[in-house]
Amino acid sequence: MVRVPSSAVAAAGLVGGYAVARWTKKRPLGGAVLGAAGLAAGREWHRSGGTPAAAGLGALYLAGFAGAHPLAKKVGAWPAVLGAAAVVAAASWAVADRG
Questions:
Q1: b vs e for 51-70, b when ≥16 Cβ sit within 10 Å of the residue's Cβ?
Q2: DSSP 3-state assignment of 96?
Q3: Residue 76's CB: how many other CB atoms inside 10 A?
Q4: How many degrees, rounded to 5, is the angle at CA 12 between CA 6 and CA 17?
Q5: Collapsing DSSP states into helix, strand and coil, what is residue 77?
Q6: Cβ atoms of residues 36 and 87 within 8 Å
Q7: Could you tell me how far CA 90 lies from the centroid of its own chain?
Q8: Would you say the pTM of this structure is higher than 0.85?
């Protein structure tokens, strides 16, 4: 089985969740994508770094989701989502995937 880095899963969850919500016009469906990817990444964060890593990265994932909303009013939706995804992916790689 191929292991997908948690950083890629987390970034895909943020970008994919937004894309699904935007293109289907069904925000709950986008939220389901965001949540499923967050759970998958969270399991890997816990496996790799334990509870503190999973809690910190999970909080960052949620902050990225929440923070992209006000940031989108200043820079646009896609730049905000991509920026949040990049920050979460970089942190995830540094904490859980690098080793």
A1: eebbeebbebbeebbeebee
A2: helix
A3: 11
A4: 130
A5: helix
A6: no
A7: 11
A8: yes
14 token code pair: 């943020």
The owner of tokens 């970008």 is: 15
Q: Are 13 and 38 in contact (CB under 8 A)?
A: yes
Position 77: which residue type? A
Ranges of H-type helices in the chain: 6-24, 27-75, 77-92
The answer to whether the beta carbons of residues 61 and 91 sit under 8 Å apart is no
Per the CB < 8 A criterion, the answer to whether 44 and 58 are in contact is no
Instruction: Summarize pLDDT for 12-30 with one digit per residue, the tens.
Output: 999 999 999 999 999 999 9
